[in-house]
Design brief:
- By secondary structure, this protein is an alpha+beta fold.
- It has two domains: 2-103, Alpha-Beta Plaits, CATH 3.30.70; 106-238, Pseudouridine synthase I, catalytic domain, C-terminal subdomain (Alpha-Beta Plaits, 2-Layer Sandwich), CATH 3.30.70.
- It has helices spanning 26-38, 71-80, 136-143, 194-206, 214-221, 261-270; strands spanning 2-9, 44-46, 55-64, 86-94, 106-115, 128-130, 148-151, 166-177, 180-187, 236-242.
- It is globular.
- Formation of pseudouridine at positions 38, 39 and 40 in the anticodon stem and loop of transfer RNAs.
- Keywords: Isomerase, tRNA processing.
Length: 272
């Protein structure tokens, strides 16, 4: 039997998604907890890998098991064995040909950036930070150059193992919510550090270092050295996965609050 799970986690407590020899990853914690419920070792495959410090609002994984458990056991039972920084949100049986990674049609990320002269403390690890005023309209104009199918070599890390740098970025939205600048990105897949490198370049445009057209020059140059430095992981969230309806999975977006208007309003009032 193949089971799909949706989960969220606070990435600041882990060394990333992928299993490590030290057992410090989200995958390690989840597999240990699932093994307790299943009564046998469990290996999971995820829709997307996240780096150390990157969070998830809706990660999707699948695993195989030879035991029968109610869906509530895979949720509440697994959560009972997980640290408080990880939670299974739902569980569904799926067909044997479903794969959390290869069946995904679209993935989304969200980056939350506190735009204020003073660094965050209560929200440390949950938001990025930039101290100079940012012009969101300029950033929105620059973002349009990246939408569509492109070679994103200028936005991939040197450690990226993807076979091709070509990706289709279907949407890239930038908006201000209180004291936050919120970036939402949707693509068929993402390269290593792609979102954080895009955010870094948009911040360069927003602070006036370059005009919006500069982002097109960076994209077409296909040279990582021409872009801005990689932005910190703290404000980055793997926010959802879209699958075809035939798999019968819940809507692929994660829970919005307090990662949108509510957090923005709180941060806005706190920094006035």
């Amino acid at each position: 039997m193949r089971i799909a799970l949706g989960l969220e986690y606070d990435g600041s407590r882990f060394c990333g998604w992928q299993s490590q020899a030290e057992g410090c990853s989200v995958q390690d914690a989840l597999e240990r907890a699932l093994g307790e419920v299943a009564g046998h070792p469990v290996r999971v495959a995820a829709a997307g890998r996240t780096d150390a410090g990157v969070h998830a609002l809706m990660q999707v994984v699948h695993f195989d098991t030879n035991v029968t458990r109610p869906e509530t056991a895979w949720v509440r039972g697994t959560n009972a064995h997980l640290p408080s920084s990880v939670a299974v949100l739902w569980a569904r049986p799926v067909a044997e040909d479903f794969h959390a990674r290869f069946s995904a049609r679209e993935r989304s990320y969200r980056y939350l950036l506190l735009n204020h002269p003073v660094r965050p403390a209560a929200a440390h690890g949950r938001v990025g930070w930039f101290h100079q005023p940012l012009d969101v309209a300029r950033m929105q104009a620059a973002a349009r150059y990246l939408v569509g199918e492109h070679d994103f070599s200028a936005f991939r890390s040197s450690e990226c193992q993807a076979r091709t740098p070509v990706r289709t970025l279907s949407r890239l939205e930038v908006r201000r919510v209180g004291a936050l600048v919120v970036f939402d990105l949707w693509a068929n897949a993402f390269l290593h550090h792609m979102v954080r490198n895009i955010v870094g370049c948009l911040v360069y445009v927003g602070k006036g270092k370059h005009p919006p057209e500069w982002l097109q020059e960076v994209l077409q140059g296909r040279d990582r050295a021409r872009g801005a430095p990689t932005f910190p992981a703290a404000g980055l969230y793997f926010s959802g996965v879209r699958y075809e309806p035939r798999w019968g999975l819940p809507e692929g977006r994660g829970r919005e609050l307090p990662f949108d208007a509510e957090l923005g309003a709180v941060m806005d009032s706190a920094f006035r």
